[in-house]
Design brief:
mainly alpha; 116 residues
Length: 116
Amino acid sequence: MTYPTEHLMDLVALAHATADRDELLRLLRDGHQLYHQGLAEIRAAVTAELGNAPETALLEQCRTQKLFLPADARRADALTALTIARWERTPTALAYAALAERAAAHGVSLLPEEGS
């Protein structure tokens, strides 16, 4: 496991041990930073692995995986779609989703509420 994954799992455990909204917000903010760190790691790995592949091969791989791409998609779009598809299956992304779900169950979000 990578550092973001391990740390996010710790944050999930802490989140399940509290109902304090301020603490959940702090945990969610910490987790958000780790989410982006893990996503950057996956992006680097996908780029290293597929960065030299022909654009047509990347677009075909997206179609094979049934990833949505606009009709005018290019190399960067395909790399992004492949990155997100891989990312969503990682323990880091799943841990962040669990953390966000726990926070949301207590009305905590990183997005300000409308009208406030």
